[in-house]
What we know:
Shape: flat
Number of strands: 0
Order of helices and strands: HHHH
Strand content: under 5%
Number of helices: 4
Number of domains: 1
Largest sheet: none
Oligomer: single chain
Helix content: 55-70%
Amino acid sequence: MGKPTLCGCPNWHPAKVTRASAQGATTSGLTGIVKDPQDAVIPGATVPVFAATAVWMLVATIVAVRQALDYRSTARAVAVCALGWLLALAVAMALGLFFGPTLS
């Protein structure tokens, strides 16, 4: 996520984005801790709650990035979050390929 191409703001600093996204956007992910249907308060609600939490985290991250980087358009924040998500997915896949179990 480079300063000249995606940010365009004079006060850009990585700590601002990290702080904004870590405090508010990922806190809702704590609801995803209880994924086992046996531990759920309402047994049939685990999948809908997990899906709603994932959407909530995505929207909160987009808003946090937009505010932290002083973007004027939400589309730009969506593009930054999409690039970050793709990078995280690529790293997770690479780690899974290298350190995952061997299938026979």
